[in-house]
Amino acid sequence: MTASTTSTFPTQAVVLAGGQGSRLRPYTDDRPKPMVEIPGTGTPIIGHQLAWLAAEGVTDAVISCGHLAGVLQEWLDSADLPLRVTTVVESEPLGRGGGLKYAAAHLPHPDQPWYATNGDIWTRFSLREMASFHGERDATATLALARPRIPWGAVETDAFGHITDFIESPPSPYLINAGVYVFSSAFTSLLPDRGDHERTTFPRLARERRLAGYPLPHGAYWRAIDTAKDLTEAAKELAAAAH
């Protein structure tokens, strides 16, 4: 970050909401993935995301639409939103990196840092703390990192091959990209006009030690809503948290 932005947190964000969500059918037959509701909340995933961004100090969001964009835009027009929202639709597929660059071009403050999130992520943690982490490392881009639970039961064995324990849905030994980002203003120009930034821009920044990874705080809620089972699990977890 430049000296003028190190003392402030980002106030703008991009939400990538163009995915088809084929693994969430039939929920996504008539709506884009971010418009799917978490059962019991009455609010689509995008609504929860915008509320979270606003609570973290974001005043302007650019939503990159694609599949069934009209459904999402209609909801945004009728909803009481906690921040200013601009929607953009790619006239032709640009890939994840190109889509991100196209959306970023519509941010109100191109010379300032920005957040980005995938439209199917359901999470809560301090974006301000992540932005501070990003600034302390003078990173060009910072990825939030999650340690998801493995969906299967794991088996532990001893050196001789005896089974010693069964563990239900253990945490993964690996960190994964959690789909939430902090980007410095300089990042935008490094994105490809088309193609996937995770195969081009991110590896380049990693080689140059300009890419940081922010582990989600212990106990922070995170789930990618990819399948109907994820919806069911999210609803259970929300119900449990309410009691």
Write up this protein.
The protein has 243 residues and is of the alpha/beta class. The chain is built from 6 helices and 11 strands. The chain is globular. Residues 1-7 have low confidence and may be disordered.
The value of Rg in angstroms is: 19 Å
Overall morphology: globular
Strand order of the largest sheet: 3-2-1-4-9-6-10
Distance between the termini: 41 Å
Give the percentage of residues in beta strands: 15-25%
How many helical stretches?
A: 6
Please estimate the helix content: 25-40%
Instruction: Tally the beta strands.
Output: 11
User: What is the H-and-E element order?
Assistant: EHEHEHEEHEEEEHEEH
Features:
243 residues, Nucleotide-diphossugar_trans, alpha/beta, disordered N terminus, globular, two-stranded antiparallel sheet, 6 helices, seven-stranded mixed sheet
List the helices and strands and how they pair.
Elements: E1 12-17, H1 45-55, E2 60-65, H2 69-78, E3 84-89, H3 95-104, E4 114-118, E5 121-124, H4 127-136, E6 141-146, E7 154-157, E8 163-167, E9 176-183, H5 201-207, E10 211-215, E11 221-224, H6 228-242
